[in-house]
Amino acid sequence: MQHDKKPSDSHQSAGQSPHQSVDHGARERPSQDTQRHGAATQAQGAASERDPLVKAVRQRRARHAQWQREGDLSVGRRLAQIGVLGWIVVTPTLAGLYTGRWLDERAGTALFWSAPLMMAGVCLGGWSAWKWMNAR
């Protein structure tokens, strides 16, 4: 298919195809719409950094990449994690129970301090275990 030269193509030089444009040194300024769009895109980028959904997706992507690099944990490693979790929960529970019994002996009460301090230990241990699991 051959292109015939039209009168409107007179701005093109003889060596250029009809699809090439000639730059006469005049540069176009970005329109206000383009400038607004750029500012809006930057604002969306900043807002997406604070978006919890975006953070969760990025964290999941990072974990998936780590899993692909390192693979699954061995059985021994999983058992070690279970053991650590057990001690993370049990240690504050027993510390609370021991402290409560000691206070009950000193104050002459039956379970006034033992039960609440044991429950506080369970809560502290559960929170610590949750933090430990989410850090991994």
Automatic annotation (TrEMBL):
Keyword Nucleotide-binding: no
Comp. bias intervals (Basic and acidic residues): 21-36
Family matches, as InterPro entries: ATPase_gene1, ATPase_put
UniProt keyword Transmembrane helix present: yes
Biased composition (Polar residues): 10-20
Keywords: Membrane, Transmembrane, Transmembrane helix
Chain segments carrying region Disordered: 1-70
Alphabetical list of Pfam families matching this protein: ATPase_gene1
Record's compositionally biased regions (Basic residues): 57-66
Transmembrane segments: 79-98, 110-130
Protein name: AtpZ/AtpI family protein
Species assigned in the record: Cobetia marina
